[in-house]
Write a structure and sequence with these properties.
It contains 6 helices and 8 strands, in the order E-H-E-E-H-E-E-H-E-E-H-H-E-H. The protein has 170 residues and is of the alpha+beta class. The protein has a single domain, classed as Alpha-Beta Plaits (2-Layer Sandwich), CATH 3.30.70.
Length: 170
């Protein structure tokens, strides 16, 4: 199994079910850290021409692994069974190089150590979908085999993230 998360913005209505599923599955204390999956709102236009789009992102379990390459303590590894990017933060020194290298802003700091989505590795090993994917009522977040994901999907996701940041600056 070689998974890749895909976000379909045209299906997302901003309900936040994926975020809540992530919080519950990982038993996260959101007073201490952000969830591993984030929902962001983009507003375009003004007045009568205002349109809203939603953007969900988290660790995409990239093929290139920029977080892994940036870590000076080799805290990242690829799980052989699920081929997901994993983090063993026991050796983490909190330098944040991995977070700076991540194009999806998917690395969190938790008590001065990095933390991130594990792709629901336990669930994947049991043949189940990640809970964020399962929770989405409109199938805006899906999991595909990496070898089936076209490069256009990755470019579209990066473009959407860049547009979000431009809208947030204005």
């Amino acid at each position: 199994m070689n998974i890749h998360f895909t976000f379909h913005p045209e299906r997302c209505v901003g309900c936040g079910a994926c975020v809540m599923a992530c919080i519950n599955e990982n038993e996260l204390d959101i007073t201490k850290q952000l969830p591993f999956r984030l929902l962001k709102k983009n507003e375009y236009g003004d007045g009568d021409t205002l349109s809203i789009t939603w953007f969900v992102h988290g660790c995409m379990h990239c093929r290139e692994h920029p977080c892994m390459d940036a870590c000076p303590k080799s805290c990242f590894f690829v799980d052989r069974e699920t081929v997901t990017v994993q983090l063993d933060n026991s050796g983490c020194v909190g330098c944040r190089r991995c977070a700076q290298a991540c194009p999806y802003e998917a690395i969190r700091q938790n008590e001065k150590r990095a933390s991130k989505c594990d792709g629901c590795r336990r669930r994947l090993r049991q043949g189940q979908l990640p809970l964020c994917v399962l929770a989405c009522p409109r199938q805006a977040l899906t999991v595909n085999e990496k070898n089936r994901v076209v490069a256009d999907g990755l470019r579209a996701l990066r473009k959407e993230l860049a547009e979000y940041h431009q809208g947030a600056v204005q």
